[in-house]
Amino acid sequence: MPSRRKESEPAAAYDIWAESYDHQPDNLMLALDEALCTDLLRPVTVTGKVIADIGCGTGRHWKKIFDREPARLMGYDVSAGMLAILRQKYPASETYLLTGSALPELPDASCDLILSTLTVAHIPDLEAVLREWYRVLRPGGDMIITDYHPEALAKGGQRTFREGEKVIAVRNHVYPIRQIRALTSRLGLQEQLVVEKVIDETMKPYYEKQQAVAVFERFRGVRIIYGIHLKKPDAAQ
Q1: 98 to 10, 11, 27, 123, 189: CA distances (angstroms)
Q2: Structural domain contains residue 236
Q3: Of 31, 32, 122, which Cα lies nearest the Cα of 76?
Q4: In which element (H, E) is residue 209 found?
């Protein structure tokens, strides 16, 4: 294994990554997240609902959301470059550049669904962010989170991409699943489903295409991605 790469701050890294982000057919994490997010969204009511996508990037999940006709879909991201690509794809999109944990455009209890995919580990103060998400979520509303599994990050996994001859790693913070679940439980969010996927033989072709079979062998059996579906209790509960 190569030594651990120095990590760049997410805003700067994703500004560079933005142009090529949607053109990664062999990116394992994007493939796993697409399948996991689709599964987690399936039982959630989207039609006619107000949705905030936190860490929306280039709007990878927006087509399947728009296909279900939400009343409003807002995208938040720290990367101006990623948001620029999203607006090219969806010119009428409502997007906001994140500079901290606050979502000042959103009143209390104004969203039916908070969606955040492949983002949590980039957040420096997770508790503050979760409190803000809870504030804007309506009673009875849903919160769906997916991300790179902390077990893989703790074992040395990094989010990297290639820019020419250079490989850039994006800064991550390791939040154990038990910590995330403890934070959401203290807020009063109710778990609907927790999914943790392990690196197995079905994923080996992705590593082979990257000439990284040694990495596959090192991480075989390690949990690579997780998803959590949470619900804010209804006011009557």
Answers
A1: 11, 9, 25, 11, 24
A2: no
A3: 122
A4: helix 204-209
For residues 68 and 100, give the distance between their C-alpha atoms in angstroms, rounded to a whole number: 30
149-153, 164-168, 175-179: range with lowest mean pLDDT: 164-168
Q: Both tokens of residue 84?
A: 């620029």
* 133 class by beta-carbon count within 10 Å (0-12 exposed, 13-18 middle, 19+ buried): buried
Number of structural domains (the chain) is 1
pLDDT in tens, 109-140: 999 999 999 999 999 999 999 999 999 999 99
| Residue 237: inside a domain | no
Angular region, 220: left φ>0, alpha ψ -120 to 50, beta rest = beta
CATH of the domain at 117: 3.40.50.150
The model's pLDDT over 163-176, given as tens digits with 9 standing for 90+, comes to 988 999 999 999 99
Query: Is residue 196 a part of any domain in this protein?
Result: yes
CA distances from 12 to 15, 17, 37 (A): 5, 9, 26
Distance CA 209, CA 54 (A): 31
Handedness of CA 178, 181, 185, 191 (dihedral sign): negative
- Domain of residue 47 covers 7-231
Distance from C-alpha of 229 to C-alpha of 222, rounded to nearest angstrom = 22
